[in-house]
Specification:
The protein is 15% helix and 32% strand. It has 154 residues and is α+β, with helices and mostly antiparallel strands. The protein has one domain: glutathione-dependent formaldehyde- activating enzyme (gfa) (Alpha-Beta Complex), CATH 3.90.1590. The radius of gyration is 16 Å and the shape is globular. The structure holds zinc ion (ZN) (2 copies). The site of one zinc ion (ZN) has 9 residues, from loops.
Length: 154
């Protein structure tokens, strides 16, 4: 029976930690933190996300932009009139995505989380643009486009 106490304890601690999240770039020159809560947890397969972080797809955590704290010198790369990616000019790590289409949110790339293990996605979006060899078998719901219209909360 004692074995059950540990998972329960870990769950309680995990829930408590979910309220605050933080991350950093590869070299540590840029660090961010946020008190929570999260607005979205999604994996995006769109061409822009893929190119923006040069990976097969992106996993992003949506947070309220006004509560985000950033330490260190960072730069913005604006790739469309309304959208940009924040990155560390020292090591090049792409840390977040921001768009006027979602003016109240910033999407942090979860690979840079202090503890990536606290992140659990809940959907795949823009599957219509995914790389052909990707066939998710993780059980998360998939959408051809965005699951929620820009500006709306999930
Ligand atoms: Zn850096
Ligand atoms: Zn995307």
């Amino acid at each position: 029976m004692g074995g059950r106490l540990f998972p329960l304890g870990a769950l309680v601690i995990g829930v408590a930690l979910m309220s605050e999240v933080s991350g950093r770039c590869s070299c540590g020159a840029v660090r961010w933190s946020h008190p929570g809560p999260k607005t979205r947890n999604l994996m995006c397969h769109c061409d822009e996300c893929r190119r923006g972080i040069a990976s097969a797809f992106s996993a992003g955590m949506g947070l309220s932009v006004n509560d985000l704290s950033i330490e260190g010198k960072w730069q913005d790369y604006r790739y469309t009139p309304e959208s940009s990616r924040g990155f560390c000019p020292e090591c090049g790590t792409r840390l977040w995505f921001k768009s006027d289409l979602w003016p109240d949110e910033v999407f942090m790339n979860v690979g840079a989380l202090g503890d990536p293990g606290i992140y659990v996605p809940d959907r795949h979006v823009v599957m219509g643009e995914k790389i052909p060899w990707i066939h998710p078998a993780d059980g998360f719901e998939g959408f051809d486009g965005f699951s929620v219209a820009p500006g709306e909360q999930p």
